[in-house]
C-alpha cells in the first residue's frame, strides 16, 4: 500500500534544496530586529519600564551590524515623537540611549506649541467677534474650535 504523506512532509520534500541568499538572510535578520526594536519601543513609550531598561534591552540585541539596533531604535523613536504630546520619555531615550543632542527637538516642539497657542488665541478672538456680531455674547460663550474650518486647516498644515 502507498504511504500517505502529510502536507508538512510534502512541503519539506519540495523545499529541501532551497536556500536563502546572503542578501535574503540579511533582510530577514534586519526585519526580525526591526520588529524586536519596535516592540521594545512600544513597551517603553507605554511607560512599561524606565530608560535604563531600554538601554539594557537595546544593548542586549546582537547583530552583525553593531549600530543597526541603534539605527532602528532611532527610527522607531522618531515615529513615536508627536509635537502635540509630552515627549519627555522619547527625548530621554534619544539623549541617554542613542546619544543625540535633543536641543533641536525640544526647541522645535516648544516653537510649535507657542505658534499653535498663538494661532488658537487668534482664531478664538475671531470666533468671539463673529458670535458677537450675530448677537451671541456672555461669559458662558465659548467657541467650538472643532467647528472652525480655518482652525482645522491650520492644524493640518
What does this protein structure show overall?
The protein has 157 residues and is an all-alpha fold. It folds into 2 domains: 22-100, no CATH class; 106-156. Helix content is 67%, strand content 0%. It contains 7 helices and no strands. It has helices at residues 7-15, 22-45, 51-59, 68-80, 88-98, 103-133, 149-156. α2 crosses α4, α3 (51-59) packs across α5 and α4 packs antiparallel against α5 (88-98). It is elongated.
The helix/strand series, from N terminus to C terminus, equals HHHHHHH
Number of strands: 0
Q: Shape, please?
A: elongated
Helix content: 55-70%
First-last Cα distance: 73 Å
What characterizes the major β-sheet?
none
What structural class do the secondary elements suggest?
Answer: mainly alpha
Amino acid at each position: 500500500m502507498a504511504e500517505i504523506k502529510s502536507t508538512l512532509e510534502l512541503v519539506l520534500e519540495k523545499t529541501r534544496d532551497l536556500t536563502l541568499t546572503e542578501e535574503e538572510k540579511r533582510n530577514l535578520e534586519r526585519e526580525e530586529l526591526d520588529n524586536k526594536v519596535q516592540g521594545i519601543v512600544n513597551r517603553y513609550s507605554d511607560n512599561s519600564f524606565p530608560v535604563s531598561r531600554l538601554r539594557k534591552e537595546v544593548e542586549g540585541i546582537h547583530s552583525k551590524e553593531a549600530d543597526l539596533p541603534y539605527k532602528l531604535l532611532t527610527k522607531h523613536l522618531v515615529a513615536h515623537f508627536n509635537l502635540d504630546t509630552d515627549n519627555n520619555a522619547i527625548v530621554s531615550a534619544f539623549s541617554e540611549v542613542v546619544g543625540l543632542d535633543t536641543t533641536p527637538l525640544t526647541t522645535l516642539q516648544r516653537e510649535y506649541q507657542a505658534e499653535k497657542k498663538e494661532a488658537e488665541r487668534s482664531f478664538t478672538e475671531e470666533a468671539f467677534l463673529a458670535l458677537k456680531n450675530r448677537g451671541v455674547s456672555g461669559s458662558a460663550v465659548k467657541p467650538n474650535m472643532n467647528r472652525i474650518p480655518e482652525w482645522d486647516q491650520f492644524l493640518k498644515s
